[in-house]
Amino acid sequence: QVQLVESGGGLVQAGGSLRLSCLTSGRTFSGYSTGWFRQAPGKDREFVATISWRDVPYYADSVKGRFTISRDGAKNTVYLQMNSLKPEDTGVYYCAATFSISNYDDLREYNYWGQGTQVTVSS
Question: CA-to-CA distance for 24 and 112, rounded, in angstroms?
Fold first, then answer.
């Protein structure tokens, strides 16, 4: 099994920045992709960004140019650097991982999920 633990969420003003971390443990020998999803109150969980096992990033259109996903293999940690935050970025951010993927933006492709970390952006 793979365990994921998110951290780094908090309250920030619009235009500010946060960096989220996703620490993975367990089965990490094989290559895997790690993604970030978010869920606002009353809305469906949506794709934010994914970094493939080849360290190729993919982003939702809504965050392109503002968010950066990266991986530190030595620390088994995936980061999501969020800049120029907007109130609509508010939500619970979840880290998820999979060892096989076809549609990188489909949450149903991901096998392992963290508990989430709250991000609140004030206007």
Answer: 10
